[in-house]
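INFO  loader      accepted 1 record
INFO  loader      residues=282
INFO  predictor   begin
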Amino acid sequence: MPEKNAVAEELILGFSKEEIIDSVVAVGIKVVIAAAILFIGLWITKFIVKKINKVLHKREMDESLRGFLCSLTSVGMKALIIITAIGQLGIEMTSFVAILAAAGLAIGMAFSGTLSNFAGGVMLLIFRPFVVGDLILVQGEEGVVKEILIFNTILHTLDNKVIILANGAVANGTIVNYTKADKRRVDWVFGIGYGDDLKAARNLLEKFTSEDERIVSDPEAPLIVLGELGDSSVNITVRAWTKTENYWGVFFDMNERVYNEFEAAGLSIPFPQMDVHMKKEA
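INFO  predictor   done
INFO  writer      dumping tokens
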């Protein structure tokens, strides 16, 4: 009887002290290794992200894109490190990964539009069809780009309305960037009356374009031609190049000068007319 009691006392929940000690030591070693993987992995992640950010900064990459790439790298590496550390503890990850994959598929199907916008944001940040400060026309909306976010692009219209556009539609649609190039061509059509002196009108327009220092001759000199014989007027087409930031100033100033000086030169600016002939029946 004493021997049986001694054996019973040595067992704890069916395990001997030696087995319990061995198990605790084994688990402790796994915990230490997992903690080391986690600590060293996070340190390496921080180091790599810092180096990537430094390299991208030297290459003068857009700040929005630089931050996004660094964040994406950090999240991806941290997820891999955490999964590795959990696996080191002896926890079976196959089922866990399968559950995550199924959940990811379900979430992806539920938020397909959101994922499309995310992908669109990535494309916009990588290929940069426009940057913050550009004046663009996209999805029928015109405005200055204020922010390029992961899911949305924010525009401010010229009358200061705020427009929020989904990046998926922006990336897949037609984008007109007015400020991408450093020069723009300004187009006008000025009408004079039939019988007016076309040469005098041409000379005045040549004078206006030559006196405006904002108009440049590169890539080509101003063009002044008879563009159309309209129903009510002889239409003169004028095309001139200027720096992008001067576009609207040149456009409006030319319109005002033509209005003020054409009449003084004996040139009329006709308005649409219609001749109506009435026939009296007997």
